[in-house]
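Bit of a strange request maybe. I'm writing a small parser for structure token strings and I need a real example to test against, not something I typed by hand. Could someone generate the tokens for this chain?
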Amino acid sequence: MSFGGLILTNKGRNLQAKAQAGAQLNFTRIAIGDGELGGTSILDINALVHEVKSLSITKFRVMPGGKAVCGSSFSNQDLVSGFYWRELGLYATDPDLGEILYCYGNAGSNAEYIPAGGGPDVVEKHVDIVSIVGNAANVTATIEQSLVFATIPEVEALVSDHEGKEDPHLGYIKKSLATTVNDFLVASGPGVWVKKTLAEVKAILGLGSAAYTSSTDYAAAGHNHDGVYSASNHNHSGVYAIVSHNHDSTYIPKSLATSTNDFVVASGAGSWVKKTLSEVRVLLDCLLKSGGTMSGEINCADNLLTRPKIKDYSEVVATDTTGTGTQTISFTSANVHNITQTGNITFSLTNPPANGDGGSVTIRIKNGATVYSKTFPSSVKWAGDEVPDMSEPNKVYDVVLATLDGGTVYHGACIGPYSA
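Reply from user aminoacidic:
Good idea to test on real output. This should exercise your parser:
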């Protein structure tokens, strides 16, 4: 629809002249209607021909060039009957006459039909009237603050300022930091958090080898996040309303921490839950300094274990199932090897401790009714430089080999025979 520009009425012209002379020009409201002018001149009318709704002014701004803009909005939700929106008028207060129709427009045959409320069509309109005020120094409007709307440029400027801040959300943490189950938030300083994977947390606690790397998403700090702007799904003719934003959908309040050593752990992408220290210990599946019960293997990877007090321990036994041919005795598979000999054997010794570290291995050899040969590497040195006799049938011999130089030389001893 088109009003083709609003025209000052005679009373509007008179009020503008008074304003030029110093009187106050105060706009009071906007009105819409469906009346037809017929042959009446706009200059002579004092009110809308048929007013349908009176609108409170929610926007006012004095513009360059002797103009002012007054704005409002309306919807059809409270309309009992539909109407053709044909009339538009701006009212102001004359210091001598009271409220007068300042300017007026009529769309004539270009009127737009506004249906009654309660139907399938929800119509919401925003109205801006740019009026002539000349060089009047005292131009005001009566604004209903509870209905104030912001224009798209105003909202975009505020959003740009909001998003341009380095840390715009005071006291909140982005939920989007969570990308994988068991991601962690770990404090890297007062009021600053970084995201860590489960492996990185274990590394921080000395339980693994992952590097401690920083995340680019930190806990937010900046301005008050209340009063964020969002677009409506209805037709607002390009208007955004100021609404209260729900932090719960996007941010975690830092106030979630209620006790020392509370943790925030991801339960899925974009989802976090708070866990206590004891719950995190279970999650990490690690043994505490204060003690506990192991449920799996510890691999020290040839690193030093200092001053342990050992009680009720055992050694792993590797049992050979063939008992003939080349028998590889590896220090890394076991320190006790159990062999029932069924043929001639040549022993090969592998993976001893590094040069300078001591290590030993025990080989239990069981002879059957037939005794077979046993050949050891030349690096094995026996007492008296004589290979011990291990030739008694149906007997057991324990051979102990020890090295201090990475397997260059082994000192060997044979204990037995024993009954099988």
